[in-house]
Specification:
52% of the residues lie in helices and 9% in strands. With 297 residues, it is an alpha/beta fold.
Amino acid sequence: MSEVITEYRNENTKDIDLLSTIDMVRKMNEEDQIVAKVVGDVSADIAAAIDMIAKAFLKGGRLFYFGAGTSGRLGVLDASECPPTFSVDPSMVQGRIAGGKDALLTAVEGAEDNFDSGKEDASVLTDKDICVVISASGNPKYLLGVLDKADEIGCATIAVTCNSQGRIAQEAGHVICTEVGPEVIAGSSRLKAGTAQKMVLNMLSTGSMIKIGKTYENFMIDLKAVNEKLKDRAIRIVSQISEVSNSEALAALLKCNWEIKTAIIMIRMNTDADSARLELKKHGGVLRKLLNEESLI
């Protein structure tokens, strides 16, 4: 068995059970501050992974997250937030956790040690997809099964881990390793390791969506306005990008079923919803390309 850094005892917190509550909180916060620095140190590795994912998306590929326990739940969380944030089909980014849906709420004993289960779950992959395996320790047999299947079908693989000596770091085609050191509570990788993984996954999904035109500047232009909060946000986005009043933005949105990009083109090009949709289609749905072209007219 390879060395598991996440199981080491943290000398900085060995007396944490004797501290006052405020000092306990401060000690945990001190450890958490390590995470952002470590994630920043592997920026180049994260960027390379984003480019891999974006290229796969543009060719009709999908992004799959696989993990066990905390790592699996983080993958499922990130995947579940892509459709409402970027208006993508739920099949575009998917999460799989060892032990299935039951493992999202309660621990499923032995699930991470099941190589065959990982291989079976990975049968959804194709050679167009990107397979991301997530583990703090980097050693679950479930993920080794996933990687084995991915290799069989020629699917590109990325490991997100906190242990450079772990098996998935050795087996995956690309590695993002955030070695955050021993946890506040020895072995509890839902803490610093989990935070690091969450940060990396945020960057992978958000960065790849930006690369394929799912944002304009830093506006969430593909969100689904399914409640009052999001409808209010949609109005503000259309108003700011189109430089019109909120009432004008609302009027346009009501004419195009709350499609933000369509509303913006309707206003900017003084056209109807169908014509705006056609213009967007000509430009691959990328608002930046269309608005840049418009500015040259």
